[in-house]
DNA sequence: CATAATTAGTTTCCAATGAAACTATGTCAA
DNA sequence: TTGACATAGTTTCATTGGAAACTAATTATG
């Protein structure tokens, strides 16, 4: 339960000089904070790199927005879905899903029909055209993924994924 | 130079059923694409988690925006800088830096003086108030980082950082 | 049943961001 | 010099995305 003490001891030791307890202003910082070695900063740079590498594909080829691609991807890989299911599966918020669905529908890529079991809802499926786009795009996206990851070994990719997932397991502080 | 063949062989094999070569439309996909196991998707989820964990701190405490925090962080840890240097160090674009500087200046946290050696430019430093904010915020940000990373061991943190950095080393395709 | 509380999805509004155009200054070459 | 081009920073504009309010339909409760 106490993993990696050393790490943050090191980090905090850098900050120690400028720690201030609530009211008490103390000391000048030991020139200590370095954005470049700050984990969230590194994550942001990393993220931008990854996203940019793959978003080019659907942007250039179909002028799609990220959320449209994600929505299409979910509809293509599964059975008919409701917007709510897409929210669930994509971690996009419902407002954005609504917009993506509207746009994809305008383009004729998805079909919207009523949901018999709940009139508030809708059932979405890919149209023929939508499937064609999906089939064209998926392998290209996977290629882009492969290209992106090609500097890493298999083992490294697995490890990276594992560590990213592990980070989520932080329980929200009970207090 | 050919690292981790197995990984993408696996990935591509899933797509194989629906690969289409330029003009030729082929096959139905093997129900194959799963957004949740798509690396860029995982990265986005990961990123949101990380950013959210730390941005709370400066948002709640000083109602600062991400780019304002980053700008402050750079000014605080170093010597006087020009906006261009901040762009360089923060990987924020110059438009955003300009805005962050304007806002921080309005709040009285940074001082702007002319740059003797180039009248187009400016020299920025933290004011007394700005330093106080910096000194208050830095240890809290580091704490948030520690908190965030506390589910990982030292070794895991190092490895994660290493892998994220390694991914950048992709050379932009020559052709 | 009737009505209160929820839920699905949309619309409206606003904050954040980046691209392109713009202003002012600096640099280089004839 | 003087003009052509480059550079620092700002402004304008369009796009994106999320929060909150809204509508319509459903479920729960008395």
UniProtKB/TrEMBL annotation, chains A, B:
<dbReference type="GO" id="GO:0003677">
    <property type="term" value="F:DNA binding"/>
</dbReference>
<dbReference type="InterPro" id="IPR052067">
    <property type="entry name" value="Metal_resp_HTH_trans_reg"/>
</dbReference>
<protein>
    <submittedName>
        <fullName>Putative HTH-type transcriptional regulator/GBAA_1941/BAS1801</fullName>
    </submittedName>
</protein>
<keyword id="KW-0804">Transcription</keyword>
<keyword id="KW-0805">Transcription regulation</keyword>
<dbReference type="Pfam" id="PF12802">
    <property type="entry name" value="MarR_2"/>
</dbReference>
<dbReference type="InterPro" id="IPR036388">
    <property type="entry name" value="WH-like_DNA-bd_sf"/>
</dbReference>
<keyword id="KW-0238">DNA-binding</keyword>
<dbReference type="GO" id="GO:0003700">
    <property type="term" value="F:DNA-binding transcription factor activity"/>
</dbReference>
<feature type="domain" description="HTH marR-type">
    <location>
        <begin position="35"/>
        <end position="169"/>
    </location>
</feature>
<dbReference type="InterPro" id="IPR000835">
    <property type="entry name" value="HTH_MarR-typ"/>
</dbReference>
<dbReference type="InterPro" id="IPR036390">
    <property type="entry name" value="WH_DNA-bd_sf"/>
</dbReference>
């Amino acid at each position: 339960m106490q993993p990696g003490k050393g790490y943050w001891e090191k980090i905090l030791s850098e900050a120690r000089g400028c720690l201030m307890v609530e009211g008490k202003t103390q000391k000048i910082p030991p020139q200590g904070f370095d954005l470049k070695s700050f984990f969230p900063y590194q994550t942001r740079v990393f993220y931008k790199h990854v996203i940019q590498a793959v978003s080019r594909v659907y942007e250039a080829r179909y002028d799609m927005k990220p959320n449209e691609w994600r929505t299409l991807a979910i509809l293509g890989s599964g059975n008919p879905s409701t917007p709510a299911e897409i929210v669930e599966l994509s971690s996009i918020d419902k407002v954005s899903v609504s917009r993506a669905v509207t746009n994809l529908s305008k383009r004729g890529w998805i079909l919207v029909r009523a949901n018999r079991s709940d009139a508030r809802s809708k059932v979405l499926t890919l149209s023929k055209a939508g499937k064609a786009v999906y089939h064209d795009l998926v392998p290209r996206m996977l290629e882009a993924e492969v290209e992106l990851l090609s500097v890493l070994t298999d083992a490294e990719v697995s490890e990276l994924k594992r560590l990213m997932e592990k980070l989520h397991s932080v329980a929200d502080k009970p207090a």
